[in-house]
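help with this:

***
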Amino acid sequence: MSAADLTALVDAMDDTTVEKLLALFADVKLTISLPPRTGLVMLTVRDSFATDFHLGEILVTEARVLFQGCEGFGMVSGEAPRRALARAVADAVLNSTEPCYIRVQLETFLVQEGSRQKTQVAEHAALVAATRVQFDLMPGA
């Protein structure tokens, strides 16, 4: 799983799911090298002329952890220390090269969560599609 995929999954999780993800690591030896902290980063976007535009600063929360000598980093938008920590721990476990049972559990959890999120998006899209109206043809015109 790529870092972008992991970030998207964790960002889309609700708080209850983030707590379930953190509960997976309750018995795992982790070292928090940088406790969750907030900061500001510049948000740069690309405009319609393919030029970078600095929109402004946004609040982020970041955290770093060590797992079996492998460092994991998590940064999420807003003030969300538990979410940043979950992102960092998942990053460290997925980047570790040594085989361990927690990696298998994490991958299973993330696959199930990804499937749940895709189903939820599809259901939401179906609800939105049901409200679509066509104004192309007007009766009596």
Q: What stands out?
A: The first strand starts at residue 31 and ends at 46. The chain is about 45% helix and 30% strand. The mean pLDDT is 88.
